[in-house]
Structures are given as structure tokens and as C-alpha cells.
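Case study 2.
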Amino acid sequence: MTETHRPLYLVGLGLTHVEVLAVLHAESFDEGWSAPSFDTTLRMPGAYGFMAVNRTDDEPLGFALFRAALFGDSVSGGGGGEAEVLTIATRPQARGQGVARALMMQGLDLAAELGVQTMFLEVAADNAAALSLYRSLGFEQSGLRKAYYARPGGLPVDALVMACAISA
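Prediction:
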């Protein structure tokens, strides 16, 4: 959850946010997702996410989109579940200010409430800032996807698959 001294607040993602999500994603990735892609993703069972917004001027700073898959009676302790980080983006001018950490913590908190036992994500092996954040939140490498991310004008980059055990 966000700390009260941070100059941001979080809102739950909905279909009304697809256009701004596409803009934020395009600012953060070489190949951003389109608004229709976000619409489709947000309609998937188990999809949830949050947008970080600047408390001073209500400017969107970033967002995180997750998907949970629950098995059996996860809420009462039977069955269990998994979740994944589908995508996370922070505007370039807002990086290093705790935006991604606040989004990830909120996503992990809700996953625990839902009965999720493990959260997964993929991250480019050369993304040092993201790797540092994920490791500080308890994620550990659980796999590798060779040459997974294309880079314009460069060689593809491996994706590290990471997992984090969640306790309610």
C-alpha cells in the first residue's frame, strides 16, 4: 500500500482508463500496447490493476496490470492460486520516486487477499532498475526465456521469469 507521505494515490483500473494506459505504455516500451489491447486484457477473468496518480495535479504517473488464477476454495485456504504481472509502466519523468514499488505492493496485497500463493512476472535481463525492485519485494528467478524481448536495431534480450511467494 502507498505510504501517506508519498505525493501519489492509487486508483483501481477500469475500462475507462484504456486510452491513458496505452499512452503510458507507449512512453515506457518500444512496442506499446494499444487501447483495444488493454480493453481486451481488462475484460479477462481475474484481471486487476492500479494507476498511480500525482496527488498535486492528478497526472497519471504509471500503472500495473495483474491477472489472478484461483484454484479451488482459495479464500478459505484450500486450493490456492497464482497471479502474474502482465505489465507495469512508470512515466520516464516519474521513475525513481516509488511509483512502481507502490503499484507492486498494492498488487501483491490484493493477490494475498484473493488467496494467491505465488506471483510471477517476466522482466528483461538488462532492466537493472526493475530487477532491483522485484528482488527487494522477494521475487527470485525461476526461469529464463532466451532472446524473448526484441530490441529495435539490436539483439534480442533474455527474459527472466521471476516468482514471489505470497502469504496472507
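The chain has one domain: 8-165.
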